[in-house]
Amino acid sequence: MHIIRSGREPLIIPNLNENDLTKNMEVTKGWGGGSLIGIPIISKTGKKFGTLCGMDDRPFEFQEKDISLFKRMADLLTYILEVDNAYQEVLKLSTPVVLVSARVGVLPVIGDIDAKRSNQMIETILMESKRLDLEHLVIDLSGITDISQNAASYLLSLGQTLKLLGIEVVFTGMRPDLAQKAISLHTEFKHATFFSNLKSGLSFIDN
After folding, report:
1. Cα–Cα distance between 159 and 188 in angstroms, integer?
2. Residue 4 confidence (pLDDT) above 50
3. Residues in Cβ contact with 138 at an 8 Å cutoff, skipping those fewer than 6 apart
4. How far lies 51's CA from each of 13, 25, 73, 80, 124, in Å?
5. Given a cut of 60, is residue 89 above it in pLDDT?
6. How many Å separate Cα 76 from the centre of its chain?
């Protein structure tokens, strides 16, 4: 019987009914016995994501090829989770709120705005707005080259959410053609405050 219980090594139980770890478990009784293989999913830094498990309702003597297959699957899942974690960190870094004066912050937006990034922006901005005690937020859009229907909706939703919290939102840096496109995509943008550059937006707030 092959059982390894620690570290990064797999847990292999060819017969659940004969193993001290599992023979008295309710799941074993309900399953009627069988076999189990479990491969830990651990990042290179030692962070534990969980375990990739495989079960059969019959006893099974796992061969090296079976173990190798599960290890490769666990490695793939680990890689995907690490990439996703890295992406989440990038999202956080790509949503910096810069305090430029008392209760006035600037959010530079660069690149495309999709649903995931929009949610991250709203979450980060709400936390930062509270932490910095903001009354005004300038969203600078000079770093975007195009705007879609969804992106326009996300920006409008962000502005409306902040307005409900008592934070005045000013948009700056959007090219005239993109501003016209945003308004055509979402007519409510007509009521938003736009300035051609960051300096103009900050001057408006100071006045």
Report:
1. 11
2. no
3. 100, 104, 105, 106, 107, 169, 170, 171, 172, 198, 201, 202, 205
4. 15, 19, 11, 14, 31
5. no
6. 19
Neighbour order of strands in the sheet with 48-56: 11-13, 35-42, 48-56
Give me the torsion for CA of 84, 88, 89, 94, rounded to 10°: 130
Residue type, 193: T
For 155-175, how does the pLDDT look when each residue is reduced to its tens digit (9 = 90+)? 888 888 888 888 999 999 888
- Residue labelled with tokens 């534990």: 48
Q: At residue 86, does pLDDT exceed 80?
A: no
What is the model's pTM? 0.52
The tokens for 184 are 């055509």
Assign 3-class secondary structure to 8-60.
Answer: CCCEEECCCCCCCCCCCCHHHHHHCCCEEEEEEEECCCCCEEEEEEEEECCCC
Confidence (pLDDT) at 15: 92
Integer Cα distance of 207 and 201 in angstroms:
10
Hey, which residues does 56 pair with through a beta bridge?
Answer: 35
- 136-143 and 11-13: which strand pairing? unpaired
> Average pLDDT, stretch 38-45?
84
Is residue 182 within 8 Å of residue 189, measured between CB atoms?
yes
> If you ran DSSP here, which 8-state letter would residue 97 be given?
P
What is the spatial distance between Cα 147 and Cα 124, in angstroms, rounded to a whole number? 21
- Higher-confidence residue of 116 and 43: namely 43
